[in-house]
């Protein structure tokens, strides 16, 4: 909701600029992830980097949990997990809490690759943003955090007040990790 010091038109114009800039940032960051992922294997999708990073940070997870964290469908995650498994970067093991289910675990080789991919990704962004003042980078991180918190709160409010149905709730599935992890 716009503040009293701004008109709805001013808010809309500012938001459109933010939306365009975030979209451009997301596409460029995704292109970096795409290049890094393809360096492991030509069939690897950009999201594979995000999957590996989540497994590195969270530990073993079920495919359904990975899909929920990334905000994409289970079939897409399953396909990437199968490729990562073929490459020896992950393996599946029985879930100790439910023997009918399996968890995806990062292998030692996978952990080593994640460390190398992360180093290369950070090197790219350090080169691109290294001339920025640390205070500016911290402020940008704070702004992204505030935006993500506001979007999550708005989604939660909308879900509690809007009946779910086709076309009734324009809020997409949660995508808690996409920009930073893809």
Task: Fill in the keyword field for this structure.
single chain, two-stranded antiparallel ribbon, 7 helices, 2 strands, 182 residues, mainly alpha
What composes the largest sheet?
Answer: 2 strands, antiparallel
SS-based structural class?
mainly alpha
Give average pLDDT, whole number. 84
> CA-to-CA gap between the ends?
30 Å
Helix count? 7
Low-confidence spans: 165-169, 174-182
- How are helices and strands ordered from N to C? HHHHEEHHH
Spatial order of the strands forming the largest sheet: 1-2
Q: What is the helical fraction, as a range of percent?
A: 55-70%
How many beta-strand segments? 2
- The radius of gyration is 19 Å
Shape: globular
Amount of beta strand? 5-15%
Task: Report on the architecture of this protein.
By secondary structure, the chain is mostly helical. It contains 7 helices and 2 strands; from the N terminus they run ααααββααα. Helix 1 crosses helix 5 (108-129). It is globular and about 55 Å long.
Describe the protein's topology:
Blueprint: H1 8-40, H2 47-58, H3 63-70, H4 74-86, E1 90-95, E2 98-106, H5 108-129, H6 134-161, H7 178-181
Antiparallel strand pairs: 1-2
Concise overview:
The protein is 66% helix and 8% strand. It is mainly α and 182 residues long.
